[in-house]
Design brief:
Blueprint lengths: L1 E12 L7 H13 L3 E2 L3 E11 L14 E12 L6 E10 L2 E5 L4 E5 L8 E4 L4 E4 L5 E3 L3 E10 L8 E5 L6 E2 H7 L1
Parallel strand pairs: 7-12
Antiparallel strand pairs: 1-4, 2-3, 3-4, 5-6, 5-11, 6-7, 8-9, 9-10, 11-12, 11-13
């Protein structure tokens, strides 16, 4: 799920004579935050706006040339939600399963969660085929899946999302259309 979140915090800005204060704040926040995962906010995709809401403060710390300002900014974030049904494109297929693009991150569908039947990996097509039905899902196909597990990062690395396509009205979009 995508969300807009407004945050207010003190941010140290390095002295830059060539930039106005608003541009310096926006550039600093974008450099520092975009691509990071925050427990409360989620995966920060973009810093959209920044507003300085206080006068600058120079802390009595030797060697720190930054001036600190209280800044209110808005971020666009992505938060995977347990049991949410998502739509994505198969980005890659490997022997363990499928990688599905969820936008800013990829989710993983283990080969046991692709269909309600055993599947076999087709390396020449980078695809999986159902052993009984012959249905194929490959790179570039659009699929619908449900989030069944979310592993949040501890210090490094990103959010890991496990998906299933074995429930009713999930899977490759043409399979869903045929089932109706």
């Amino acid at each position: 799920m995508y969300r807009l979140v407004t945050v207010t915090e003190w941010v140290g800005l390095p002295p830059r004579a060539e930039e106005d204060l608003h541009t310096a704040a926006l550039n600093e926040l974008r450099y520092r935050l975009e691509g990071l995962y925050d427990e409360d906010i989620g995966l920060i995709i973009a810093v959209l706006d920044a507003e300085i809401v206080s006068d600058g403060y120079i802390p009595p710390l030797p060697g720190d040339p930054r001036i600190y300002y209280q800044i209110r900014y808005t971020v666009l974030s992505f938060v995977p939600v347990m049991f949410e049904v998502i739509r994505g494109e198969v980005r890659d297929a490997r022997p363990p399963g499928l990688f599905v693009s969820l936008g800013p991150i990829d989710g993983f569908v283990h080969k046991s969660q692709i269909m309600d039947e055993p599947v076999e990996y087709l390396p020449e097509r980078r695809a999986f085929r159902g052993k009984q039905s012959g249905r194929i899902v490959e790179v570039g196909d659009v699929v619908r899946a449900r989030i069944v597990q979310i592993s949040k990062p501890r210090r490094t690395g990103g959010v890991r999302v496990a998906l299933t396509m074995r429930q009713p009205y999930l899977g490759k979009e043409e399979w869903i259309a045929q089932a109706r």
